[in-house]
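Form 7-S
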Amino acid sequence: MAKPQKRYVCQACGSVSHRWAGQCSDCSEWNTLVEEANTAATPFHSKHNLQTGGRAIQLVGLDAEIKLPDRMATGIAELDRALGGGFVEGSATLIGGDPGIGKSTLLLQAAAKMALAGQSVAYVSGEEAADQVRLRARRLGLGNAPVQLAAATSTRDILTTLQTRPPAMLVIDSIQTMHSDLIEGAPGTVSQVRASAQELIRFAKERGTAVVLVGHVTKDGSIAGPRVLEHMVDTVLSFEGERSHQYRILRAIKNRFGGTDEIGVFSMQTEGLAEVGNPSSLFLTHRDDAMTGATVFPALEGTRPVLVEIQALTVRLASGATPRRAVVGWDSGRLAMILAVLEARCGLSFSSAEVYLNIAGGYRVQDPAADLAVAAALISAMSERPVPVDAVAFGEVALSGEIRPVAHGPLRLKEASKLGFERALVPASMTGEKSGMKLSGFKTLASFVDHMMGRG
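Output:
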């Protein structure tokens, strides 16, 4: 009998090597190669004839009639918004986030609300005992919800228990603690995560159960394990937020049954996660008087506008000192670009000043439409001329100094007008929009600087 060949699997990217090394040759991560048993069932030199022995599959046309998938509402509007209307029967959903961000709390609240609405829900925890989950439910005021709890890590035991009466929703907290006896390896390894997830997803497809998997994240915020886990599931949700701030954002990264442009916003309270119907209230500070270096920007998350405050501070340094650039909540590379355009196209020099930029409330902005609002905050901080408190600004700045239009401008203006803003600093192509606000349009960043400095 041939001696089984050893193999080493990278826990970061899933690549396989036949000898151990300190650094993975594919992803360059250190100390991630772990020895696992080779599960190949057939010899290397076996011959296969793929033309016989199979079964014919049915082919259907692209124009075949199909109904929309049935969805199960969770009773939490913000969660349903991120999912595209609720959980789909027979789907697999992966939710990841930092430890303590509120993943288990959110899923326990959703499971309890669905159970109280008459749905059968099972919650299996591999990290906590059933009594711990029950105590948390009591703290959240959900102790009377008919959710079936269990503490288990064996995938075979879980599926055997649920085989006769499959629930409408099954929560697995977390997939990194699950263990499949079909292969060798400790829980949390690449092969175990893949095998356990595959068995659970097969159960979901065969029995029509909506399976929700909780995933750990790495230090850089990505879901732990190989990306193959994200490819296997139907929906991937990311739970984001800073522990020092009360808000939490649930963002859909992948969704086979809906769009990935919606978010759900929550606020962490003593009684659990509360929905935030007006997210702008979390990220706008109450200002009676205009302040230098502060600009309001109508960001867009999917189809939901969120007004956030962009704050800038400049500090002049003595000659010869190296200026510092610090950014919180925005791309530091994009800040460097805006500073370069202001200096090259507008004659404003920040080379002798430290620049600090912050998005209030711990919010993270990735919208390129924030360029003009950031420029306004920087110009206001340097010139000590405040932006009017009733004004918002948005537009994309090109390297040529041109201010370009952005997507969904009317939607941004509508949200700003609803919250009491009366003026908007926008690209020149948007001045014809009917919004009920006074629109000031600019073709170039130089003309915008002249306006901010009172020269135009």
